[in-house]
Design brief:
Largest sheet of chain A: 9 strands, antiparallel
Number of strands of chain B: 0
Shape of chain B: elongated
Radius of gyration of chain A: 22 Å
Shape of chain A: globular
Strand content of chain A: 25-35%
Number of domains of chain A: 2
Structural class of chain B: mainly alpha
Distance between the termini of chain B: 15 Å
Number of strands of chain A: 26
Number of helices of chain A: 6
Radius of gyration of chain B: 17 Å
Number of domains of chain B: 1
Strand order of the largest sheet of chain A: 3-4-5-6-19-18-20-16-17
Largest interface: A-B, 34 and 31 residues
Distance between the termini of chain A: 68 Å
Helix content of chain B: over 70%
Oligomer: heterodimer
Number of helices of chain B: 5
């Protein structure tokens, strides 16, 4: 009891206690990997046995360029910071600077033939270039647009089946603080196109369904944001975790679930309010978003930010862009330093980490297109 | 008589110093939040934003009140130390939760700090002097 009377002895003892307590909490939140068994007492709950994937009714992948009005016309995304001017013209790709980035990851890509094959039978798949991938089941076109003084990377995706829309977790282990770079996870899974996911590992609560497997069924703490569900039929649906259980979602045919938010576009209407940002943030940031344009037609969008060359987008700006791009539903994924797009074996954007340093951050999961 | 005056002055001086220290901590909390928010790309944590209320309401104001009243005679050294420990626990809790939430993560550790801080404060009241 004497120690409690002495101011400095008590102060030192209690300070050590507080420091150790806080240190353990911070290490647990940021550093210590914690592998967790999937939900259901270790039993893996999977929806795959009940549902079949939606497949395109006609020829899997045709040259759909002519069917896409966005590619046919030209849209001029004005560099004016306060407005976007959409004209009859489609998105104008800016000069492709991807070759300058991450040369260590460069892979030799087969060049496209100068003479286009005249018939479908003459085409030898896959067709791979810096901004295109095409085979019998997957067609991806990558474009770079300049918007609000920000570099925005847009991947237009056509699939013949919903099964090619996949997610992967870092090191194939589920848990918190188990992270790896987007490019590394993408390479391990032979992804053609990949973006960072919802960083499920940053939180201890919140539904996690990846590739039809239920990993976590505890309701997220900040359920003011809805979840995006990618169904087995390839459609997008919006749910709130307080309204439905994870098992019910699985039984309804949810193949992928994204628990970040907010919803940017829902039923073709902009769903995010001006000033509303993730974590009550207000500034422009690097962003990652996913959207559905039509049946088995998706869009992955990543914007750079926090640099002089690319300021970044606010959520409203991103929502406006997704809507103008024709998205019926669009959802914001983890942004900031996590925002990364990987295509054909290399990173196409300039992810920022630790301030404005150009480097790739490790994340807990990715969304990818591949086999 | 001389001894009584000396003790009273010492006690008054202690709470004077305490209120000044708590006022400084309040200002520090406001500045810390401003700087942290500036480098967090707009991310704001409510815990860190309102952290300054703990040293202000639980430290500065009670100390200033005790300076101006005779109630300070009932405050023992243990009470004083434990009350300060309770305040420190709340402030540390706000800082830790603020750091975690500003990184985009969610955490539910704040109740732990609240319970510890509240226990320390309740205990401190149990050690009040019964006689001045």
């Amino acid at each position: 009891m004497k120690a409690f009377k002495k101011p400095f002895v008590f102060c030192i003892i209690y300070s050590i206690f507080l420091i150790l307590l806080s240190l353990s909490i911070i290490l647990d939140a940021f550093v210590i990997p914690n592998e967790i068994s999937p939900s259901g007492d270790g039993e893996i709950l999977s929806a795959e046995i009940k549902f079949t994937f939606k497949e395109a009714e006609d020829t899997p992948i045709e040259d759909t360029t002519s069917n896409n009005p966005k590619n046919e016309e030209t849209t001029d995304f004005s560099t004016d910071e306060t407005s976007i001017i959409i004209t009859e013209e489609s998105i104008q790709p800016v000069e492709d600077t991807t070759d300058e980035i991450y040369t260590e990851n460069d892979t030799t890509l087969p060049a496209l033939s100068d003479t286009e094959p005249e018939t479908e039978a003459d085409i030898s798949y896959p067709i791979i270039s810096d901004n295109e991938y095409r085979d019998e089941n997957i067609k991806i076109t990558l474009q770079t647009v300049r918007l609000h003084n920000t570099q925005v990377y847009v991947a237009d995706i056509y699939l013949s089946s919903a099964q090619y829309f996949k997610t992967a977790i870092a090191k194939n282990k589920f848990g918190t603080n188990i992270n790896d770079k987007t490019s590394a996870i993408a390479e391990q899974n032979n992804a053609i196109l990949a973006i960072n996911g919802d960083f499920y590992g940053a939180n201890k609560k919140g539904y996690v369904i990846k590739n039809g497997i239920l990993y976590r069924d505890s309701v997220r703490s900040d359920y003011k944001y809805d979840d995006l569900c990618f169904m087995f039929d390839g459609s997008f649906k919006i749910f709130n975790e307080k309204d439905i259980s994870a098992r019910d979602l699985l039984n309804m045919g949810v193949y992928q679930l994204f628990g970040f938010g907010p919803v940017l576009v829902n039923e073709t209407e902009i769903f995010v309010k001006a000033g509303e940002e993730v974590g009550v943030a207000m500034s422009s940031n690097p962003r990652t978003a996913v959207g559905i344009v039509d049946e088995l037609h998706y869009v992955f969008v990543v914007s750079d930010g926090r640099t002089k060359e690319s300021e970044g987008l606010s959520l409203v700006q991103l929502a406006e862009f997704m809507k103008e791009h024709g998205c019926k539903t669009a959802y914001n994924l983890d942004g900031g330093g996590s925002s990364t797009m990987y295509f054909n074996g290399r990173i196409v954007n300039k992810p920022v980490n630790r301030g404005s340093t150009i480097s790739e951050r490790s994340v807990s999961d990715i969304v990818y297109i591949g086999y | 008589m001389t001894l009584f005056t000396s003790v009273t002055d010492k006690s008054k001086r202690r709470f004077c110093v305490s209120s000044v220290v708590y006022l400084s901590v309040t200002v520090f909390c406001i500045v810390f939040n401003a700087i942290y928010t500036y480098f967090s790309y707009g991310m704001v944590s409510n815990h860190m934003k309102y952290m300054f209320l703990f040293p202000l309401l639980l430290g500065c104001m009670p100390s200033a009140l005790l300076v101006s009243t005779k109630a300070r005679k009932y405050v023992s050294r243990i009470t004083f130390n434990m009350w300060n420990a309770g305040c420190a626990t709340f402030i540390t809790g706000c800082t830790v939760v603020g750091i975690i939430t500003n990184s985009g993560r969610s955490t539910d550790v704040f109740p732990i700090y609240c319970i510890i801080g509240a226990v320390m404060m309740i205990l401190s009241l149990l050690f009040l002097k019964k006689k001045a």
